Description:
Layout: H1 3-6, E1 15-20, E2 26-32, H2 35-40, H3 49-57, E3 60-65, H4 69-83, H5 89-92, E4 98-102, E5 110-114, E6 127-132, H6 135-146, H7 163-166, H8 180-194, H9 198-214, H10 218-232, E7 251-260, E8 263-273, E9 276-277, E10 283-286, H11 295-308, E11 318-322, H12 325-337, E12 344-349, E13 356-360, H13 369-401
Parallel strand pairs: 7-11, 11-12
Antiparallel strand pairs: 1-2, 1-3, 4-5, 4-6, 7-8, 8-9, 8-10, 12-13
Amino acid sequence: xxxxxxxxxxxxxxxxxxxxxxxxxxxxxxxxxxxxxxxxxxxxxxxxxxxxxxxxxxxxxxxxxxxxxxxxxxxxxxxxxxxxxxxxxxxxxxxxxxxxxxxxxxxxxxxxxxxxxxxxxxxxxxxxxxxxxxxxxxxxxxxxxxxxxxxxxxxxxxxxxxxxxxxxxxxxxxxxxxxxxxxxxxxxxxxxxxxxxxxxxxxxxxxxxxxxxxxxxxxxxxxxxxxxxxxxxxxxxxxxxxxxxxxxxxxxxxxxxxxxxxxxxxxxxxxxxxxxxxxxxxxxxxxxxxxxxxxxxxxxxxxxxxxxxxxxxxxxxxxxxxxxxxxxxxxxxxxxxxxxxxxxxxxxxxxxxxxxxxxxxxxxxxxxxxxxxxxxxxxxxxxxxxxxxxxxxxxxxxxxxx
Length: 402
């Protein structure tokens, strides 16, 4: 059977593929969200010269399907380490390879570390997983796993709960919110997942869930059941494309006010789901109760009206407003009135108008500032568009009266 015909019979699943030469040696290993589509891409015209040379040696392709792209990422790393394929040599010799590092603390932190930085680790035998060849893919995978088994990433445990703790991505050992034994079980589950032992993890969690139910510990049983379901449905998770920015927040809402001296005042709500704008969730607000130029009061009206619909619209994990301390405080006041605890970020133009000032109600997670600014800019664009529409409509009506 020709290789390009063989790819037609490969299932459309995530997984890893091993390319072999006539002698049966593995010469290249890759991962894919869809094995079928990825392997088809090797049988098209105008392949890069390096890939053409590689394919000229390929006599057979073996595939290993996985339940998710996340598991394919870890399996790829494990198999490359085992076989050292020659066409993975560029990655293999790359000094910026990535590892996942578990600290030796009472409540271990989990972080990514580059190969060039391994020398700074004090342990003689540090707990490492890898190497991996894409920092972004590893980061995306860790964020998915973190939603199932929360863990800390801070290098030094603070005495103040960070934003990750408030949104459930860290179990907040800094505040004593999780026993050492329970945190250790989470870490063990993560390590076994990295090692390809997902079935072992699910079996243990199922046993613990049944025991918790028998002892009428229903809250614990529900938590364990959710973890089991999340692991069983990892196929729905994916490592997002390079054009999108991953986020620890499932739902971010951005707000802005647009008016000139109070005229045609409007407010906007934009929504980003898992780092991607979701225009079906956008909302426009025509300011009704505020007279004159008072952006803070207008923002209060918009947020108050928005949370009148809190049982209809999904709850945000984070709120971003275009503005400074005054805007952040008025949002916090509305949230308090509605008995809600949601992190708030204000992004204002600095005094020199050349750089942004960030005002937060909690400690910010690293690496998401670009996304936060993108949400702010989108909220501004959407509010401005609605303001201009109202302005044009009023101008047209005046023209007809004449």
